[in-house]
Every structure is written in C-alpha cells, then in structure tokens.
Design brief:
By secondary structure, the chain is mostly helical. It is 46% helix and 0% strand. The protein starts with 7 loop residues before the first helix and ends in an 8-residue tail after the last helix. The mean pLDDT is 90.
Length: 72
Amino acid sequence: MTKQLAHPMVKFQRKVSSLVESNVLKPSDSIWKVALLYGDQWDYWKGELLEFGFTMQDPVSELLMVEAWDED
C-alpha cells in the first residue's frame, strides 16, 4: 500500500485558507498580498501560481476554489 502525497499546491492552498479563516487575508484580496506573508519563499509560489494560470491580481477566493491541482 502506497501513501499518496499531497501536491505542494494543496498545502499552499490550505495555508492560504487558514490565513483567510484567521482574518489575515480576505477572500477578495489580490493573490499578490500573499507575497507579504511568504517573503523569500514567494518567488517559488508565484512561479507555481503563474504556471496554473493565475495572475497576481486574481482574488484569493479563486485560489481557494481549485478542487484539484493536476499538472496535465
């Protein structure tokens, strides 16, 4: 039996969801505001988000609506 690992974007999505639930971010905030919280890790996450078709002006709610992070 093999354990299936979560896609890194699933973990990122959970962290962003937690920030929204804690009222650190609002669902209507632009994704670029996450950069203020991720500092030196932001370049990596920004690249991942861009690969999935997000822009930094998209609202955080768009990120939270993704149900599957398939890399087809």
